[in-house]
Structures are given as structure tokens and as C-alpha cells.
Specification:
It contains 3 helices and 8 strands; from the N terminus they run βαβαβββββαβ. The radius of gyration is 15 Å and the shape is globular. The mean pLDDT is about 95. Helix content is about 20%, strand content about 35%. It is of the alpha/beta class. Strands 1, 3, 4, 5, 7 and 8 form a 6-stranded mixed beta sheet that branches. It has a two-stranded antiparallel ribbon with strand order 2-6.
Length: about 130
């Protein structure tokens, strides 16, 4: 048994609005992100290399650039209580769940796991947020 580290991610995309539907691009990006974080594809102690997610998002028709990606360590309120060392700053309370989110500081564009932990996005429909501009 290991520790679960619950995550949330905010993804900002710059898109081509000529001939592409922003809503469809957002849905495709959310699907790709959910697939990327599918726990059946991960192992204990596996690190997250953000460039792998970025590469997948760039393949979406209509995406010009990935402007920003921010990760959060989610705790309490239905999420695990595990907080990683890369979670920095103030924990912000989430009114809907009563839990907290703390921004994760990337190191070399990665989030590092520990030997007894595994990453999970517990609620993809709520914890993967896509914005387009």
C-alpha cells in the first residue's frame, strides 16, 4: 500500500478560432489530460514530466500554444491528506468540498513522486480545468 497524492491542473491554451470550435478544443484537451493521468497507466514512484502532457496537448487541432499549466496538491474534503514537498505557499480552501489546494512548484518542469506514493486526479471533471484564449 502506498500514499495517494491527489492533483488538480489548470491548463491555459491559445487557440485558432478560425475554423475551430473553442468548446470542442476544451473537451479534447480535458479528455487528453484525463487520459494522461489515468491511474492504470501510472506506477508507484513515477514522476510527472510536464513536457509529456504538453506534447499531447499540442496535437489537438486548433491549439496554437500551451500558455500555462499549473498543478495543485489537493487535500482533505474527499481527497487524500498527502502533501508533497513541492506544494508551496498558502493552502486555499475549496468551499464545495471543505478541502484545500496548494500550488505545486515544478522542479525542472517535473513533479517528483516518492517511493511509496502515486499521483491521481480524483475528480477529472472538476480537477482538470481548461481555459482558452
Amino acid at each position: 500500500d502506498g500514499k495517494i497524492i491527489n492533483l488538480a491542473v489548470d491548463i491555459d491554451l491559445f487557440i485558432d478560432r478560425n475554423g475551430f470550435n473553442p468548446r470542442e478544443i476544451k473537451m479534447n484537451a480535458a479528455t487528453i489530460a484525463a487520459d494522461f493521468f489515468d491511474v492504470d497507466k501510472w506506477q508507484m514512484n513515477q514522476h510527472i514530466y510536464v513536457s509529456q502532457l504538453v506534447d499531447s496537448l499540442r496535437e489537438i487541432p486548433g491549439v496554437i500554444n500551451i500558455v500555462n499549466i499549473e498543478f495543485y496538491n489537493m487535500q482533505g474534503g474527499g481527497y487524500s491528506d498527502t502533501l508533497i514537498s513541492q506544494a508551496v505557499g498558502e493552502a486555499i480552501q475549496i468551499p464545495e468540498t471543505g478541502g484545500f489546494k496548494t500550488k505545486i512548484e515544478l522542479i525542472d518542469n517535473a513533479i517528483f513522486s516518492t517511493p511509496i506514493s502515486m499521483f491521481e486526479i480524483r475528480n477529472p471533471s472538476r480537477d482538470i480545468r481548461i481555459r482558452v484564449a
